[in-house]
Amino acid sequence: MRIQVIGVDHRTAPLAALATLSDGEGLSRVLMARQADVAGAVLLSTCNRFELICDTDDSLGPERLRERVCELLRELAPDVDERALSGLRADVGDAAVQHVFEVAAGMRAAVIGDKQVAGQLRRAYELASERGQCTGRLHRLCHDALTSSRAVASRTSLGAAGRSVAGVGLDMTGLPGGLRGRRVLLVGTGAFARVVLAELGTRRAGRISCWSASGRAERFAAHHDVVPLDDDGLAGAVAEAELVVTCSGNGAVLGAGPLLAGRPELAAPGAFPVLDLSLGGDLTEEARALPGVRVIGLEEVRDRADETQREVIEQAQQVVDEGVARHLAKERSRGADPAIAAMRAEVGVLVDREIARVRARESEEVCAAVERSLRHLAGVMLHTPTVRGNQLAEEGRGEEFFAALTLLGIEVDR
Questions:
Q1: pLDDT given for residue 204 in this prediction
Q2: Residues 364, 87: Cα–Cα separation, whole Å
Q3: Of residues 47, 70, 210, 367, which has the active-site annotation?
Q4: pTM over 0.70
Q5: Number of helices (H), then strands (E), in the chain
Q6: Number of structural domains found in the chain
Q7: 70 labelled catalytic
């Protein structure tokens, strides 16, 4: 058996395409019911990712599993965007474990260090457990990944690294006197929009209007201090804004039309700042080409990020790698469990047989003393081969331990 992860996230498909997978929530249940070589499955479904963490038989290859997942998603979500399916990727074995640990730590989040990801994984794991979809291997993987995530949070400042991307970008806008009291148009309502909003708050920005191509501005405004906009109000907000910040991740959602409708002067050379923090870019080519627009893109912002941020990410990666190494070592050591159980059972039978022989001839007092001695001796004798068996399994040499037991006449059922 081995761990496989089949999934798509904000890096491999647009958020709008990911949203069409929402009807695929029953994927783990259906896959386990129809695919006998999938023993367990945890489905992590968020606005930024859709991933199935599986415990599968070694005979099930990643490409076949990916094909099966695509088939079921087309069945469960008939309106699924093919871009989401084409973005599905597969990680297997150690690479899959590494992926789950990095996801739990927020290192693969849209906003690096996002602490919400660990909570989302925990809820997905708990739901799978309640439904009986977790194997022992999946229980241990999720538990260890979440433990490692807490270690990253306590031993590093990874969350601050994510927030600094928005902060650096806002600083790069170069508005005279900073952002204090400035009117801002925010495009997007996802995780990064919340981060941007927090950074605008620390800089004491003025009125912040919010527009979402997916119509979620009203919902976002119910929990944040922004003025929601519909499509009709977009041009007016552009006219009032001194800065536009885009971070929707839904593809090119802001075109030249609304910008020119609000600010006709953008058709002539100028330097109106638009900070585009979306991974794929939220501005259309026509909008980017406007002579009066100065676009500050995510790559440019990342290039400006200081060395401290890179050091924090490296520190977090080291903590994650240590957690992965410990988990894999423990998993390999479990390979010796059948042999250790067989060895202990065989010794137990011999001890019980000798105690029965003594009991037939001696008093209860003598029998009790002999039993204590024999069981103590068995425990002492079994300690070293048990420890050594686990060590050999961790080193990938478990077969040597299995072979050694055959010299004692102990056959192991694997």
A1: 95
A2: 72
A3: 47
A4: no
A5: 18, 10
A6: 3
A7: no
